[in-house]
Amino acid sequence: MERMDRRAANTSRRIGPILIIAAALMLARCGGEIGSDGSAAPFVGTGAGKLGLEADGKDHVRRVRRYGAEVPVAYYDLSFKLSKRTGGITPPVQARIFAYMGLALYESLVAGMPRHQSIARHLNGIGQLPKAHGNHHWPLVASAAMAEVMRGLWGDATNFAAQNIADIDALEAQFAAATDVHGSLARRSIDFGHAVGAAIFETSKDDGGHRGYLTNFPTSYVPPAGPGLWVPLPGQTALQPFWRDQMTPFVSAGAACDPGPPPAYSETPGSTFYDEAFEVYDVSTHLTAEQLTIARFWADGPGTINGPGHSLSTASQVLVQVGANLEEAAETFARVGIADADAVLSCWFSKYEYSLIRPITYIRHVIDPAYSTPLPTPPFPEYTSAHSVQTAAALTTLQALFGDIGYTDHTHDLDGFAPRTFASLSDSMLETGLSRLYGGIHYHAAIFNGFAQGRCVSAKVNALPWREKEDERGRAPYP
């Protein structure tokens, strides 16, 4: 059931005590930036004057777009690390977290973004949020809002709550120390950011996904049985089987972008279903070294940055590459985060609507009983591919904002992988989807219907009235 127009509670929190800030500011001044997962990524920007937290001369109060994007980039970099160590951060749970992080960032800054407007009332169940009064130092507002909402999302009842909160506190304290804004302006900015972050976390509590990291594997779910239906592998329990029914969509219901059923189940050679299964078998048992690298680079399984995390890492790296300002970063993280969360919800609708058999089960039953997959098979039904759906939603949203630009992916620099360079976001999207074919995880239909599903979700998010005046691509050009 969708939440309807609730009043969010406003609270305030004191700042507590990651060397990431010093590194971020130093790299920003010498032509570099901290990339996702702590890796160094190239920065193409407009110099420290735009990026810096400090006010220039008497101009302590400027519009949001006059500041750089290092505040949200640093908080997202931290969240990628928290994803690896915090238990229960599965794709649905993580995508939801990123949606609320982006929303808190955007709504805390929108009063200083005259070409934009609040999006909260256009989202299901968010309701009214605190209003900005007086002058504010927007980097401090952004830092306080992100710290506060993250203390709730990454702290609360997680298994690393104390350590996560301590790291968030340290990051906030370092941003506060990096500016020469003090007195009532600093206090007002921090208090307002805290109020928005607290309100966003409070409004998240009845969306159906609150503390989802504790309820990933409900034992009450019994998968339907029959030919062509998903059978959990030994030791598996279905992951978030009720997500599609209990989680409130931000924009549109999970069924709204469902691409329709997969090919009809068949064990007959020459049928569409058999041919797609045989393609998985043939490709995954004859991988080239490059294909195996691709499968592993995009695996993003438990204990890693995860699939939604990889998409938000891409967003962060694109922002750094184009030298984005704080306004651009706020809109980007909000759009991409909300699109990703609704995409995972739509994907989970399809997965448990069709409950399709996984390739490993079909291939062992029909083609080769000794078959094994290059990557572990996840504990949920096959159709559609979550990698395809959420990646398409995130990257299509980035395309709407920045065009089909190329980039170099440094997400796994610290995990033993070389960076991967793409001529376009479309190329990256395609490789992400095909990585699941290489891994023996998905059939052709799940991958390519998943792309369409993700693009559908992105279109709905991009259609929201983010800006007062839009151009033909649904965006207002930045000077």
Give the topology.
Elements: H1 20-29, E1 32-34, E2 40-42, H2 48-51, H3 70-85, H4 91-109, H5 138-155, H6 161-177, H7 183-204, H8 243-246, H9 272-284, H10 289-297, H11 307-322, H12 326-354, H13 359-366, H14 386-402, E3 407-409, E4 420-422, H15 425-438, H16 444-462
Antiparallel strand pairs: 1-2, 3-4
Supply the number of helical segments.
16
Helical proportion, percent range: 40-55%
Q: Which H/E pattern describes the elements?
A: HEEHHHHHHHHHHHHHEEHH
Please, what is the average pLDDT? Answer: 88
Give your account of this protein's structure.
By secondary structure, this protein is mostly helical. The chain folds into two domains: 20-204, no CATH class; 239-462, Vanadium-containing Chloroperoxidase, domain 2 (Orthogonal Bundle). It has helices at residues 20-29, 48-51, 70-85, 91-109, 138-155, 161-177, 183-204, 243-246, 272-284, 289-297, 307-322, 326-354, 359-366, 386-402, 425-438, 444-462; strands spanning 32-34, 40-42, 407-409, 420-422. The strands form two sheets. It has a two-stranded antiparallel ribbon. It has a two-stranded antiparallel ribbon with strand order 3-4. A hairpin with a 5-residue loop joins strand 1 (32-34) and strand 2. The two termini are 42 Å apart. Mean pLDDT is 88; it is low at 1-52 and 54-59.
